[in-house]
Amino acid sequence: MTTSIVASDMLCENGMPSFMARPMSPGPHPVYIFMHERYGLVQHTRDLAKRCAADGFVVLAPDFFFKHPDKKALNAGDSRYDLTDPEAVEYLKGALATLEKLPFADMKRVAVGGYCQTGRHPLVFASEVPIAAAVVWYGGAAKREWLISERQPKLLDDMLAKITCPVFGSFGSDDHIISIDDVRKLRDTLEKHRKSYDIHIYNGAPHGWLNDTMPGRYRKPQAEAGWAAQQRFLARVLAPDYKNEPITCNFEASYSSNYDFSKNVRLE
Prior knowledge:
Layout: E1 5-11, E2 17-23, E3 29-35, H1 43-53, E4 58-62, H2 71-75, H3 85-99, E5 105-115, H4 121-126, E6 133-137, H5 156-162, E7 167-172, H6 180-192, E8 197-202, H7 220-237, E9 249-253
Parallel strand pairs: 3-4, 3-5, 5-6, 6-7, 7-8, 8-9
Antiparallel strand pairs: 1-2, 2-4
């Protein structure tokens, strides 16, 4: 059942521009913090925020790249902002501080979701701040994610060991950045550290396949299936009576018998 919503632009306490969509009813409702793709806070992000709010969530979509000097180039994909892990944690804490003052937000039921470039950051944040769920869409699993760098000062393996919430992951078999073996490594690491997870690989889906503003990438059947799986996961783990015990592990993968990661290509 679709819920009537209200949506508006706002500023977080740290001056970070954000978009909020929420049910019109007083709540309190579970919270979903939406981390956008590499293009910044574009219309696609706003559309998904409203779609999620219609399912009964308070959704806050901050502009995590608000310090980028050329938003037009960023939004068009002609430039990028290299968000560091410490920055992501700082900005997410700012988002939480803003939400804590809103009476319709249930701060005991907070999920953080990252898409594409920000896919790793819900995992990073969950390793430092207790949240109810971490959501990852075609991010956080590529080989580069497991390395230490100036932007990534801590090992992902060590951070995964510290999270206490269940993890949702949605990936495509035709992704040119993240291989099926990469997704298996993420799954196996969560298994090693005894974390609950719900991970899906969709056949025929390239990188960015949820984004319906990019016809070359968008795959409607897989996008609808992945979104429905995410919403089922959120409804389950953000339910008031949810207990993360016992550990639950679900891995569903669909891909061609002729799968060859080296043949996957970037699509627009």
